[in-house]
Task: inverse folding
């Protein structure tokens, strides 16, 4: 069990370091020190720092894909229930690790590592298709009114991302601090309530 455990400890340490110092500000030596591994072990499992980062991203994206698929395949849920669960799950995932999300967004915006950028972009696109299918199917069966599906998805995802990256937009004038666990829970709940209200209002067929 030692090797799998060590592999996971490397990933956990690297994710925390990337979140705090960014990709460029994190070295493989730091990852080795924080994880209790050595450099050769990191190279054996991941090949490089970029390999470590890509494995973290792959796991996160794949995990969300599995969550999306499970929701989408649940025939006991209505289209609206599926969509609300997807949105809630997405908001929780992003805000639960908002620092890492900020770092990932910087990587996507800078596009300094094309291979990394393309892989993350393609994986996210695959997840968006599940999101899109839920809305499209709801429109087709009359549960939702016809809307610009891509724009709705962009609105939801951008709202979640903006709260994670720039929380001052909604915390200004309050004592809420997204870095505080209890405050973050309040912000997260507020975000989820808002998004659910937005979706219900926007998609409900007009009488």
Result:
């Amino acid at each position: 069990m030692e090797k799998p455990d060590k592999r996971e400890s490397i990933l956990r340490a690297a994710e925390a370091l990337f979140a705090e110092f960014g990709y460029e500000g994190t070295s493989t030596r730091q990852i080795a020190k924080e994880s209790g591994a050595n450099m050769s072990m990191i190279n054996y499992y991941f090949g490089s720092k970029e390999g470590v980062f890509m494995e973290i991203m792959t796991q996160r994206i794949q995990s969300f894909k599995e969550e999306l698929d499970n929701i989408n395949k649940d025939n006991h849920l209505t289209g609206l229930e599926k969509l609300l669960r997807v949105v809630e799950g997405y908001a929780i995932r992003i805000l639960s690790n908002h620092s890492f999300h900020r770092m990932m967004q910087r990587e996507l915006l800078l596009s300094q590592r094309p291979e990394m950028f393309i892989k993350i972009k393609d994986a996210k696109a695959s997840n968006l298709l599940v999101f899109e299918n839920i809305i499209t199917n709801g429109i087709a069966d009359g549960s939702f009114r016809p809307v610009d599906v891509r724009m709705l998805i962009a609105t939801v995802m951008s709202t979640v991302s903006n709260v994670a990256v720039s929380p001052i937009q909604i915390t200004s004038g309050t004592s809420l601090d997204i870095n505080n666990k209890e405050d973050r829970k309040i912000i997260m709940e507020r975000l989820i309530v808002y998004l659910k209200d937005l979706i219900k209002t926007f998609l409900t067929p007009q009488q």
Q: What stands out?
A: The mean pLDDT is 88. The CA atoms of residues 32 and 72 lie 39 Å apart. DSSP finds ten helices and no strands in the chain. The domain at 1-47 is CATH 1.10.10.60 (Arc Repressor Mutant, subunit A).
